[in-house]
Amino acid sequence: MSTTLEPTGTPVPSSAARGITGASVRPGDRVFLGLSRGAGLLILLTMASIAIFLVVKAIPALQANTANFLTSTAWFPDQSPAVFGIAALVFGTVMTSIVAMVLAVPVGIGIALFIAHYAPRRLATALGFVTDLLAAVPSIIFGMWGLQFLTPHMEGLGEWLNTYLGFIPIFTNTLGLYSKSILIAGVVLAIMILPTISAITREVFVQVPRDHIEAALALGATRWEMVRLSIFPFAKPGMISAAMLGLGRALGETIAVALILSASYDINRHITEPGGNTFAANIALRWNEAGPIGLSALVASGLVLFVITLVVNMGARAVIARRAEFSGAN
Amino acid sequence: MAKRIDVTDLDIYYGSFKAVEGATLSIEPRSVTAFIGPSGCGKSTMLRALNRMHEVIPGAYVEGKVLLDGEDLYGANVDPVNVRRTIGMVFQRPNPFPTMSIRDNVVAGLRLDGTRRKKAELDEIAERSLRGANLWDEVKDRLHRPGSGLSGGQQQRLCIARAIAVEPQVLLMDEPCSALDPISTLAIEDLIEQLKERFTIVIVTHNMQQAARVSDTTGFFNLSGIGKPGKLVEMAETDVIFSNPTQQATEDYISGRFG
Ligand SMILES: Nc1ncnc2c1ncn2[C@@H]1O[C@H](COP(=O)(O)OP(=O)(O)OP(=O)(O)O)[C@@H](O)[C@H]1O
Ligand SMILES: [Mg+2]
């Protein structure tokens, strides 16, 4: 800030008088520094207190448990002796999320790409608006819709998969029943996270500098080659973040999954058959009827979910950081 | 492998706005042609119309003819992608692909034409192009480092190497030195001098000395008024334009007497 333009007579010291030595921290800077440090600290404290809460509350059940917590598929924590394990929950959570990601990531990126770089401007604006709206729909709505509307429509897909891809174990259906399956839950999750993924990737796609785009086009790139040369490399960190946000939502989604799955505690590899369970749905379904050890067991399963999401996030961060030097940021 | 360009009666539009009107000019093979003129008179627009980069802007189109050795670039069954492979372009701001190494930047265009090349062949083309852009000695030890880690002048020569790696017929340059220091500018001017042995070069510049130094032919563009389209006022041998222009406006512009 120059002081030469100060009206004469104001008691502001001239820059010459103030000199250039010495730290001059303005009040605004100090307030902002305090605020941002405080906010950072608050987040860390919250994370720590959640972790501590989960560990402390989980200990009684883990001590009472007579089965292997990680490999058992039973869930009888309030019996004596207590018998419970998370294997089925891990399986159900991971499988529904994989189904959701396999469907939602390519489709979400495709939609974002279409909106950002292919659609005529009018259509792009309208589509962008609709995806943003969809991202805000509460999950219970998706759950009801999935249960009532999607389930009957998914039967055909399940049968088709069984007939033509049944040689792949996950698509085999030996029961002839196709409702309340991991596949349906995964599809509903996919639809739920699709707008999140496409809204965020669209945001980064439109931020790709014109320079990069024209660099590719001027070399004689087709539109798709331009996307691969300029858009994807620039947007990759954003695409990974978007996928991770979607995955986070899929892993933790409770109510929609609880509505759709018919809770069971075995690992059924046939994902078109009824059954399966996830961490979040299990907690929601069991919480009210659980005794003291039952509650503690649910908290223990919550701790595992917490760790899984942390690991997934850190993994994503590592991927982004690995080639930071080659990123579009410099 | 250099070709001539003949433009007849070209009108260039951004939507309903006519940016350039009635441009007619010829560009000789293996020569350097400079476009000069005040800001906003349509030099970049004209340049981008020569390799159909103009139309990547939504709503932009042209009317008229641009012939490359007699073949109409805007003909009905001409693919703009092929036009851009034949007529390369270097931009005002260096724009190497930031996620690619120096070497990959140079050969990026070669990966687009559908022919598979061996790594050794690509390495060889990369070296030849970098030598052609007078950059080889500076980067030969760090070919696998990111291109964005180079200085501005080096990045611009990297972009030139990338453009000449695909062996275009014509090379278009839009103020290639305006973001560079005098030393880098001289390096690029020397390079243009060498490149004209092999390519037809068209360069837009605001630097009159530069136009005088590097070009054989100079075209002066001007605006007849605000909101009016730009026009090619006159085009002639560079010596003539700078010593003995036929138009008063050209005279005023090159002597610095300009609004
Ligand atoms: N993307 C665009 N959309 C609409 N109008 C544009 C666009 N780009 C340029 N124009 C207009 O076209 C006219 C010519 O612009 P152009 O960029 O060709 O000028 P220029 O001679 O290159 O100027 P400069 O010397 O400042 O680079 C200007 O009136 C400009 O406002
Ligand atoms: Mg320009």
TrEMBL record, chain A:
Record's bilayer topology term: Multi-pass membrane protein
Keyword Transmembrane on entry: yes
GO molecular function, one term: phosphate transmembrane transporter activity
Cellular-component GO terms for this entry: plasma membrane
InterPro entries for the chain: MetI-like, MetI-like_sf, Phosphate_PstC, Phosphate_Transport_Permease
Residue stretches making up the ABC transmembrane type-1 domain: 90-316
Major subcellular site: membrane
Any single GO BP term: phosphate ion transport
Region forming the signal peptide: none
Localization annotation: Cell membrane
UniProt keyword list: Cell membrane, Membrane, Phosphate transport, Transmembrane, Transmembrane helix, Transport
Transmembrane segments: 39-62, 82-115, 127-147, 167-194, 293-313
Compositional bias per record (Polar residues), positions renumbered to this chain: 1-13
SUPFAM superfamilies per record: MetI-like (SSF161098)
A Pfam family recorded for this sequence: BPD_transp_1
Region of interest called Disordered, as start-end residue ranges on this chain: 1-21
Family affiliation: Belongs to the binding-protein-dependent transport system permease family. CysTW subfamily.
UniProt-recorded name of the protein: Unannotated protein
Organism expressing this protein natively: freshwater metagenome
Automatic annotation (TrEMBL), chain B:
Name of the protein described by the UniProt record: Unannotated protein
InterPro entries listed in its UniProt record: AAA+_ATPase, ABC_transporter-like_ATP-bd, ABC_transporter-like_CS, P-loop_NTPase, PstB-like
GO molecular function: ATP binding; ATP hydrolysis activity; phosphate transmembrane transporter activity
GO annotation terms (biological process): phosphate ion transmembrane transport
GO cellular component term of the entry, any: membrane
Pfam families with a match to the protein in the record: ABC_tran
Annotated keywords: ATP-binding, Nucleotide-binding, Transport
NCBIfam families xref list: 3a0107s01c2
CDD domains: ABC_PstB_phosphate_transporter (cd03260)
Keyword Transferase found: no
Residue ranges of domain ABC transporter in the record: 5-248
Gene3D superfamilies: P-loop containing nucleotide triphosphate hydrolases
